[in-house]
Amino acid sequence: MANKSALILFAHGARDPRWAAPFQRLQAMTQASSPELTVELAFLEFMTPSLPELAAQLVANGCDNITLVPVFLGQGGHVLRDLPSLIEAIRGNHPGLQFRIVNAVGEDETVLQAMRDYCLKSL
After folding, report:
1. In whole angstroms, what separates CA 102 from the centre of its chain?
2. What separation in angstroms does the CA of 25 have from each of 33, 47, 84, 122?
3. Where are its TM segments located (predicted)?
4. Cα–Cα distances in Å, from 121 out to 1, 9, 66, 96?
5. What's the pLDDT tens digit per position in 75-104?
6. C-alpha dihedral, 84 to 86 to 89 to 95, nearest 10°
7. Distance (Å, rounded) from C-alpha 107 to C-alpha 117?
8. What is the phi/psi pair of residue 73, to 5°?
9. How far apart are CA 61 and CA 36, in angstroms?
């Protein structure tokens, strides 16, 4: 890894592999916009890699700074309960790792405006 920072897009996951397609497109678009940055996708359940697996892989590749974006519409139970316990375990396994978590993507005003525009465009 050329740099020591990474951006993780964190999604729920599903049993149907087709569910991941928009998240994979988001990851590819984000990576293309910032080729100098490592952009990865991790899942809470049903799909791989899991967040702990991905964090361990990034640390093994020399990463020491991760920003995590929950690709969820809101700050529900998974973001408020499950994610903090995962982060606590990751920090315990990798004490030198800096880990920053931002709000769920659906909490951002520009994301909501884009969704509004999409809804209105459908009329």
Report:
1. 10
2. 12, 16, 26, 22
3. none
4. 41, 27, 36, 47
5. 766 677 888 899 999 999 999 899 999 999
6. -70
7. 16
8. -75, -30
9. 15
Which of these, 38, 27, 92, lies nearest to 63 by C-alpha position? 38
- Please state, in angstroms and rounded to a whole number, the distance separating the CA atoms of residues 117 and 2: 38
Per the CB < 8 A criterion, the answer to whether 75 and 105 are in contact is no
Q: pTM for this one? A: 0.90
C-alpha–C-alpha distance, residues 8 and 109, integer Å: 21
Per-chain mean pLDDT for the chain: 92
Give residue for tokens 């569910």. Answer: 19
Whether 10 and 45 have beta carbons less than 8 Å apart is answered as no
Which of 36-40, 74-78, 109-113 has the lowest average pLDDT? 74-78
